Amino acid sequence: MRHRFQSVLLTLICCGCASRTPSLSQKISSIMPKDADFSFRAHEGWSTNLLKGVRLAETTAQDAAHEITKIMDGEPSTTWTGKGYGHKPEFTFDLGRTIEFNRLVIFNRHTDARGTGGGNNAARDLVIYGSIPDQTDTFFVVCETTLPGPRAQCIEHEGRRACFFIDNTEPVVIKLPKTRVRLLRIQILSAYWTSSAESNWPSELSYALSEVMVFLAVESPDTR
What φ, ψ does residue 37 adopt, rounded to 5°? Predict the structure, then answer.
């Protein structure tokens, strides 16, 4: 898996040989969260993850269709990355049967950035749709949400300055009324790119999304 801080690691060239600059690069590495830091355990009374391993029915992101399983593989450490090419990335998943759920859990990491001034490709605005049971060609809005993005950080060491983004290790947990669907559609409306990045590199910018989990939570009356 590519490290998200590759662009800020520095390399010294000495005597024709490349060597790492351990002081700054190790400092950056120590700040960055590790894959093991991204995890989620369903609470007591929750179902298993109902989206894990389901079938992809349709997508507009054909350039990275083979990567879409990363969104629903149950592993927050894997991240889908793709380009919109003029379209908002959209994925429709077939759950195989009509299910009922009331919780969404979303991990949102980035895989590309244009410096802290240009932003990054972590998803920002999402819309999630569900199909009306027994009418798989008719969809309704399940929820619209703005996900928190990676935070920018700069460090200095021995006269050098490096700026980068740090992903949130905690997922976004969305509580919903009980909802019945057969198909679930996820649309990424925007990413955390700045307007200057969108103007300067319109065809190069990508989108990223790590994981979407779906659960049915059964709660006791006093905890609802």
Answer: -75, -15
State pLDDT tens for residues 167-191.
999 999 999 999 999 999 999 999 9
* Domain regions of the chain by residue span: 6-219
* pLDDT at site 221: 55
Domain made up of 6-219: CATH architecture: Sandwich (2.60)
Q: How confident is the model at residue 16 (pLDDT cuts 50, 70, 90)?
A: very low
Q: Which of 191, 169, 143, 123 is nearest to 31 (CA)?
A: 169
